[in-house]
Structure formats: C-alpha cells, structure tokens
Amino acid sequence: xxxxxxxxxxxxxxxxxxxxxxxxxxxxxxxxxxxxxxxxxxxxxxxxxxxxxxxxxxxxxxxxxxxxxxxxxxxxxxxxxxxxxxxxxxxxxxxxxxxxxxxxxxxxxxxxxxxxxxxxxxxxxxxxxxxxxxxxxxxxxxxxxxxxxxxxxxxxxxxxxxxxxxxxxxxxxxxxxxxxxxxxxxxxxxxxxxxxxxxxxxxxxxxxxxxxxxxxxxxxxxxxxxxxxxxxxxxxxxxxxxxxxxxxxxxxxxxxxxxxxxxxxxxxxxxxxxxxxxxxxxxxxxxxxxxxxxxxxxxxxxxxxxxxxxxxxxxxxxxxxxxxxxxxxxxxxxxxxxxxxxxxxxxxxxxxxxxxxxxxxxxxxxxxxxxxxxxxxxxxxxxxxxxxxxxxxxxxxxxxxxxxxxxxxxxxxxxxxxxxxxxxxxxxxxxxxxxxxxxxxxxxxxxxxxxxxxxxxxxxxxxxxxxxxxxxxxxxxxxxxxxxxxxxxxxxxxxx
Length: 496
Prior knowledge:
Blueprint: E1 3-10, H1 14-18, H2 23-36, E2 39-47, H3 53-69, E3 76-79, H4 82-85, H5 89-102, E4 106-108, H6 117-150, E5 162-167, E6 170-175, H7 177-192, H8 197-206, H9 220-227, E7 235-238, E8 241-244, H10 253-265, E9 279-281, E10 288-296, E11 301-309, E12 322-323, H11 324-337, H12 343-390, H13 396-438, H14 442-445, H15 450-460, E13 461-467, E14 470-475, H16 479-484, H17 488-495
Helix pairs in contact: 7-10, 10-13, 12-13, 13-15
C-alpha cells in the first residue's frame, strides 16, 4: 500500500533562497524522500518569502486542520528541517500534539531522528535552537532599524514625494520631482488659502494635480496623512520618535508649523456649505450639517442644499430639515431688523465701532507681549534640553520626544504671534464693514461668496440656533442693541 504524506515548505527571506533553500529545491527533495520511502505527497503547503506573518499563520492552521481531518490516512508530515516547520516553541508543540494525538509523525528529511525519547529530545533541541535564532534575529532587526533611524535614514519605504533607490548597495531616497511639487502645492494651499481638507480635494482636482496614475484623485484621509508627515521637513520616524534625517526636505518649517496649528484648530465640517458649523440644533445642541441633493429632469439637473441636525436620524429627534434658501430668507430678515434708517445714527454707530477698534488694538499689543514671553521660555527650554542631552543626563528617545513637543509648541506660538495683532484688528475692521454692509445687504447678499457671508455672520452673531424651523440668532454687542430697535432720541441722550 502506498504511503501518504503531507509536506510543508517555507522560505522566510530572499537570502535563504539565494543560499540554496529555494521552494523549488525543498519541494524536489521532499518528493524524492516520499518516493524513496514508498509513498507520495498528497498535499503540499508552501509559504513564500513575501508572505506576511498573518498569511503564514493562516496557512499553518490550515495544514493542522487538514491533517486532523485525515487522521488515520496519513503516514507523516514531511519538512526539510525542524526550523522550516516551526520557528517558535508554540508551533513545535502543536506539531508534537498532532503526532501524539493523531499519529501523524513529524519527519525531518535532513535531520532524521528516531521516534524514541532520545530522538524526541533531539528534535526539541533543534526546535529550541530555531526559536532562539528567530527571537535573536527579531532583536537584531529591531536594533538595526533603530540605528538606521537614528542615523537619519528611513526604515521603511519613503513617503509620497520621495523615491527609494540603491546607492553602493545601500538603500537611500531621492526627491521625486513631480510628487514633491504636489506636496509643496498641497501645503501652500492649506496653509495660506483658507482651505478645509474637503475643499482642498476640490482645489487640487481643479488644478489638475493628481496623486498617482492608478488613483488620480487625492482623498481626504491621504491629504491629512501628508499634511501631518514630518518627513517633509527632513525628519525620520521610528516608533513614534522623530529623528533628524539625511534626506532633502520638501516643505519649509514655517509652512509646516502653520499647517499643524490650522489642523488643530479645524474640525471636520463641511465648510463648502454656508451654514455648516455656524448653526446648532435647539433640541439637542449638536451642530447642524449640510447635505447636497440633486434632482434630475429630462432637461437638466437641479442641485439643492439641505440642513439638518447631525442627530437627525436618532429615534427621539425631531425630523426637521430646511433648504438653504429658507435660512437665507431668515438671515435677510435678521439684517432688516438691524438696519438703521437715520443717517446720523449710522454715523455715530460707525464711530463707536472705530473707538472699539482702538481698544482691540491695545488688547492685541498686550497679547503679543504675552506670546513673546511664552516663546522666549520655550526657546530657553530647548536650550536646556540640549544641554541635558549633551551631558548624557537623558536618553535619545526622551530627547527626541521632548524636542518634538517643544518644536511644535514653538511653531504654534510663532503662528499665534504672527496673527495676534493682525487678526484682532482685521476682526474689528470687519465689524465696521459688516455693519456698513448690513445697512444695504439685501441686493448684495446673493452675490457675496461663501467665505464673505460666513465672516459677516460670525462677526454679527455669537451663535445661531435652529429652533424647529426658526433661526434664532444671539447677536454680539452692540448689534444686539440694534436688533432691539433703539431710538434716535435714546442714542442722542447717550452721546450727551
């Protein structure tokens, strides 16, 4: 009767294949052994050097399941060496259990042992050495990767914008001209052109900037990954610790720091829609979000924008949904309520806003002084941290982590310092412009762009609440007084 075997062949690295342990060689020798011993291999399990650990584990479990299902029909499991079958003691114990409980003997072609206590001890010795080699190799690889990162070299494939090349048998990276130009444009658009991640996707598509040939369009998640990758300012990551790299930076540090601050300030809202993130639900306090709908006819396609609470689909939530036009009408009615017909009162109101602007500028100067003090302290802390590292009082990992934290803090303070005085002055001036516009808003509202409309609403209103289908504004001072409809006589008394 012909004996029946199953066989297991595995190559874990290209180097093993080059050294004569290719899968073809293993399969050939395993089949020769089966034939020489009056049998045949009815099923061969193969693991290539490109297989992931998960894929290898899956194949190993499949082999065990098949062997158990064929219990009593198989004469053995053939392997070239013990370390080809089991790289750890857990797998070896599973194979021993298969032998003891199901009678399927583990047979090593190049390391034959008898089925005796001494033979089993020899096999376990081989398995112990295989486990040691695997564990030691893991430690060596991790150490080498850490050293490579500390030397400023990537331990994995270089990110988008760079190309991996071989130079004198060493893997290095070079700047990819097309991809690096895309990265620079992405950072510029987000840092200085008031984009959200969603609008950035649209802007890149409009400019004809593509990701890859197979996937032309940039997706939101990929853009976030690019914008937060410190590789573009010349750093290398290893297990969350960033080290100075040897590759050429693509993005300047000022732009990168600005982007990080903007990313922290912005949350996910559909800013392409006018009222998203500006209005909250009066029922639950959650943000009101927009959704785009379209209706096709035989002639054309009509596009509509609706607004509803983000908890609209909750069982206990009112099903209220409004069109953008409905909200526009209510906003226009709000501006009608704050319109002042008397020219003298309007002039007085503008003067009052200008006086407030001067106060805002004084407050801005005080804020800048505080920020400059904070920035000086952070820079002193960076110097102290460097001295601690030079004196070997902290390790490299702690130094890198704290250095990155201080760099981020420094970048945020620089950006806040840059915008401190200007931002408050611009807001004050915008208040005057918003007032002037509010006095003649109706013919201009529908021609203003989305950003201008949002800016006006943010200046005039502390918040906007959707109570059922009614938009309820809470006006900022002094626009709240205008909304209440104060009289010229009262204003004259205030001025005297």
